C-alpha cells in the first residue's frame, strides 16, 4: 500500500517509519513526504533517502486552510497515495481533509490518550504528577487527538524527570510503536481484502 508521511519539523518518527519499511514484509511503501514548512529539517533527510517530498508553506493561505489542503490532497492522489501517517505534523486538519481520508489516516500523539490531548504533553504530565506516561497511535477524526485508539506504549515517569528526559523516553517508544501500529492496521486491511 502506497503511503505518505506528513511532517513539520525534525521528522524522527518519519525516519523510524522509513527504516521499518525496509523490512520485506512491511505492509506499506512510503512514496511521499509532505510538509507545511519548506524548512522542516526532516525534508533534507527524506530527499537524501530517495523519498519524494512535497513542501507547501501554509502561511500564504492564511485562514483558507482548505485551499492549502486541497493542493496537498491533489499531490497525494497524483502519487497514488492510499494511506497517510501524520508524524509531528503541527497543523489542525480541516474536516474536509479528514473526511477525504477517513479510515486511511493515522497520527501519533506523545501521551496516553485520552489524557493530555494537545500540546506540551510532557510538561503537563509532570505537572499532573502522573507516574505513567507514553504515546498513542490513533485514527484521525475531526476532533483533534480524538480518533479511535490503535496502539499505545507506556513509560514510567521517574524521580527527577525533566520534560526533556520524559520526551526522550517517550520518543524512543514512539519510534517502535508507530511501525508496529502501521503493521497492525495495514495487515488487517490487507486481510479483509483477501
Ligand atoms: C513527537 O513527539 C510526536 O509524537 C509528535 O511530534 C513530535 C515530533 O516528532 N507528534 P518528530 O518530528 O517525528 O521527531
Automatic annotation (TrEMBL):
GO terms assigned for molecular function: phosphoribosylglycinamide formyltransferase activity
EC number: 2.1.2.2
Binding site for (6R)-10-formyltetrahydrofolate: 65, 107
Chain ranges of the Formyl transferase N-terminal domain: 2-182
Pathway stated in the Swiss-Prot or TrEMBL entry: Purine metabolism; IMP biosynthesis via de novo pathway; N(2)-formyl-N(1)-(5-phospho-D-ribosyl)glycinamide from N(1)-(5-phospho-D-ribosyl)glycinamide (10-formyl THF route): step 1/1
Positions that bind N(1)-(5-phospho-beta-D-ribosyl)glycinamide: 11-13
Family named by the database record: Belongs to the GART family.
Family matches, as NCBIfam families: PurN
Protein name as it appears in the record: Phosphoribosylglycinamide formyltransferase
Provenance organism: Asticcacaulis taihuensis
Name of the encoding gene: purN
Amino acid at each position: 500500500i502506497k503511503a505518505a508521511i506528513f511532517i513539520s519539523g525534525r521528522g524522527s518518527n518519519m525516519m523510524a517509519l522509513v527504516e521499518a519499511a525496509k523490512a520485506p514484509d512491511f505492509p506499506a511503501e512510503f512514496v511521499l513526504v509532505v510538509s507545511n514548512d519548506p524548512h522542516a529539517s526532516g525534508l533534507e533527510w527524506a530527499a537524501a533517502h530517495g523519498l519524494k517530498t512535497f513542501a507547501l508553506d501554509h502561511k500564504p493561505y492564511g485562514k483558507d486552510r482548505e485551499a492549502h489542503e486541497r493542493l496537498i490532497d491533489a499531490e497525494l492522489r497524483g502519487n497514488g497515495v492510499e494511506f497517510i501517517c501524520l508524524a509531528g505534523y503541527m497543523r489542525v486538519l480541516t474536516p474536509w481533509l479528514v473526511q477525504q481520508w477517513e479510515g486511511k489516516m493515522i497520527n501519533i500523539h506523545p501521551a496516553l490518550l485520552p489524557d493530555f490531548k494537545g500540546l506540551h504533553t510532557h510538561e503537563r504530565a509532570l505537572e499532573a504528577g502522573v507516574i505513567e506516561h507514553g504515546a498513542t497511535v490513533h485514527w484521525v477524526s475531526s476532533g483533534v487527538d480524538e480518533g479511535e485508539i490503535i496502539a499505545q506504549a507506556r513509560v514510567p515517569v521517574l524521580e527527577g524527570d525533566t520534560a526533556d528526559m520524559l520526551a526522550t523516553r517517550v520518543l524512543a517508544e514512539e519510534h517502535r510503536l508507530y511501525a508496529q501500529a502501521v503493521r497492525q492496521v495495514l495487515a488487517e486491511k490487507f486481510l479483509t481484502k483477501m
